[in-house]
Amino acid sequence: MLGRIVYFLCLPSVLAAQLCKPNAAEGFKVRLSIKTALGDKAYEWNRNQRFLFQAAIAFAMSHHLDLEFNVSNVLVCDETPRVSFWFVVTSPGDPSRLVGKESVELAVRESRDRINNVLLLNDATLEFVGVLPTLVAPVKPATPPWLIVFGVVIGIVGAGIVFLLVSTVVQKKRKEKEVAEEEEDDEEAQMKRTARNEGIYNTSFSEDDRNTQM
Amino acid sequence: MAKDARENWESPMQFVMACVSYAVGLGNVWRFPYLCQMHGGGGFLIPYLLMLLLEGVPLFYLELAIGQKMRLGSIGAWTAISPYLGGLGLASVVTSMYLCLYYNIINAWSFWYLFHSFQSVLPWAACPVNSNRTGPIEECEKATPTQYFFYRETLNVSPSIEKNGGIHTGQALCFLLAWVITYLFIIRGVKSTGKVVYFTATFPYVVLLIYLIRGMTLHGALNGVKYMFTPKMEELANPTTWINAATQIFFSLGLGFGSLIAFASYNQYHNNFEWQAIIVSLINSGTSIFASIVTFAIYGFKATINYENCLERTRILLLNSFNLAEDSIIINNVFEMIEKLNTTFPEQLAELSNKLEDCNLENELSTAVEGTGLAFIVYSEAIKNMPLSQLWSVLYFFMLLMLGMGSMLGNITAITTPLQDFKFLSRISNEALNGFVCILCLLLGLGFTTRSGNYWFTMFNDYGATFSLLLIVLIEVITVSYIYGIKRFEKDIEDMLGHRPNWFWKIMWGGISPLLLITLFLFYVINYIQGGTPTYQAWNKDLVSLYFYSSCLRWGFSFCCLYYSAS
């Protein structure tokens, strides 16, 4: 009788030891880099931190499969000084049966953010070996920002060119008008001056040809 | 209304600024540091400065004298010297045309990078995420984010020169902008160019100074500068060092394009171009040296960062494989730990040997890069690691733009000035003629914005102008010394400056410079004949590396030969 009691008492831990082992088929290896992430504020990995991890995984499984998982359903083994270990998840209904690898992966991916935050780590420092991270979708603005800057610059340059061309044309027109007026004014101004001085302007000596013809 | 009086620079300072802006270009930033590194660091300065004295300044002086005396662009000036030499001027114009076609694409790339710097995270800082959001895009992961950004997002490069692909719209827009701005700068000839060059000549120095201060304070910068300045005197025994020094001086000063003749033709007749020639040449060389200090500080920083990243990756690999506690290995004792692990767990370490990288600072420093690879990949990689990277990025690409635009101004002026000298074209206004040249170059240059455009650019850059420039300047110097006659040339200079040129100049023009040029020319011819089919580097999307490709260059090459023989 006592033997049987001892047998049944030891069974869960023996089962646990058999269910959770390195390179288990349904298990995942986890690696934590606490000192890299937190530096001076790094906490020591001990039984309580492990409990927190188990609780987080239990939460992720419950959230994903909508079943009630307990901390005792998450088995952890093969801890190393690196702070890496293997874990497996047992089904809440039948503790000797393991939950499939794909379900665990999906659950972890879904709640990755929450698990990271609970342990004060991130995707790089809390590594689930084999689970691909879900990266943030890139923010795509409606107009790429470079196009906006381009538009502004080419608008200013275009305006500059138009301004310069227009001012050249305007200047040319003004110069042509001035020259035409100057040529007319020459004769008229002289005639006016002589009339003012009460003289008679002798047009036979007007300045049509500056040089005498040879 | 005929244009009877030739336009002039508003002051001699504008002319000097224009020459500085033209001569100081991208080559000073991306070619000289490479040569310095390849040919023994500080020791390279000896052949460089010697060639400046023997070849650079005399030829510069010569071109300025011709331009100022004849007061015509290159075609008119050489025709005036001897009616049979009009072809020389024409060759200069055609070479300038070649350059104008492809040079503005670099400005287009600078604009692209400049506009993309106005983002909270620089696009070349990290790899973009792939379609199912599980990780970065494969091509980007195999290469580096900066390489991916340049080859895939900027160029969208095709695997070889035969595969044209379509026009990259973003590139085409930036190319259009580059030409529109060029037109704005030259719209009124020297009146507008003269004002612009104040800015394009001085702004790069401001940025270089800021970068020098920033660069020197970067972590690991001194490694790079020390590496550069440690002279390796044995390189001086290598003839390639001297050839490269001569070539660099020659191309850096921009001789033979006709730009210097064009600029000098707008001078007052009695402008003292002698001291201007010396000053501009010295400024050009000084800028090369200054820029290489900055570049090597940046190299040192980048090499140190890469080295430390390599050490970090090795450390993580060791920690994960051997399940050791995190603080047992730190960056400083990575190598000691490898030794220790070799003695305690040799088989396990042997298993890792193909994943373990060889981290070596010397190797990182000795990867010398030149050309667009340096300007757009190496520098952007260094910039993304600096704090406030957007600011540094904007400053840097704006500086590249100023350097490139300044050189473009000279090259475009080398085309428009001789054209304006022709009687039948003088009826068309300045603005219309300049606009026509710009539009023509824009349309012809659109080929460089296609997906294979980078390969065409490389072909033009490496093989387009080298030969013809050497030949042009050689004939120039021989013409002036022997056909026109040194005595007549002396008298012209005396007429302009008031004193005859020193005996030093006469020896250079008559003897040393032509000999140097003939040597260079022969060297290039021999190299071409021995080199076989010319090759170019193509980007392979799957291997994610550059590999040599040598097919279609042949027909492009024969085209080049045809035009050389025609001019």
Automatic annotation (TrEMBL), chain A:
| Regions crossing the membrane | 146-170
- What is its membrane topology? Single-pass type I membrane protein
* Alphabetized InterPro entries for the sequence: Collectrin (IPR042944), Collectrin_dom (IPR031588)
Record's keyword terms, sorted: Cell membrane, Glycoprotein, Membrane, Phosphoprotein, Signal, Transmembrane, Transmembrane helix
Where does this polypeptide localize? Cell membrane
One GO CC annotation: plasma membrane
Query: For the Collectrin-like domain, which residue ranges apply?
Result: 24-214
List, as start-end ranges, the regions of compositional bias called Acidic residues.
179-188
Give the GO terms filed under biological process for this record: positive regulation of amino acid transport
- Superkingdom of this protein's organism: Eukaryota
Provide the leader sequence positions: 1-16
Instruction: From the UniProt entry, list the residue stretches annotated as the region Disordered.
Output: 174-214
Protein name, entry field: Collectrin, amino acid transport regulator
From TrEMBL, chain B:
According to the UniProt entry, its GO molecular function terms are: L-proline transmembrane transporter activity; metal ion binding; proline:sodium symporter activity
| Taxon lineage | Eukaryota, Metazoa, Chordata, Craniata, Vertebrata
In the bilayer, the protein is annotated as: Multi-pass membrane protein
One record GO biological process: L-proline import across plasma membrane
Chief location category: membrane
Where is this chain's protein located in or outside the cell? Membrane
Q: Which UniProt keywords apply?
A: Glycoprotein, Membrane, Metal-binding, Sodium, Symport, Transmembrane, Transmembrane helix, Transport
Entries under InterPro entries matching the protein? Na/ntran_symport, Neutral_aa_SLC6, SNS_sf
Q: From which domain of life does this come?
A: Eukaryota
Keyword Transport attributed: yes
Name the family the entry cites: Belongs to the sodium:neurotransmitter symporter (SNF) (TC 2.A.22) family.
Q: Which organism is it from?
A: Xiphophorus maculatus
Q: Specify the protein name.
A: Transporter
GO cellular component terms attached to this protein's record: apical plasma membrane
- Please tell me where Na(+) binds in this chain: A23, V24, N28, S252, N284, L403, S407
Q: Where are the transmembrane segments?
A: 12-32, 44-62, 83-105, 165-186, 198-222, 242-266, 278-299, 394-415, 436-457, 463-486, 507-526, 546-566
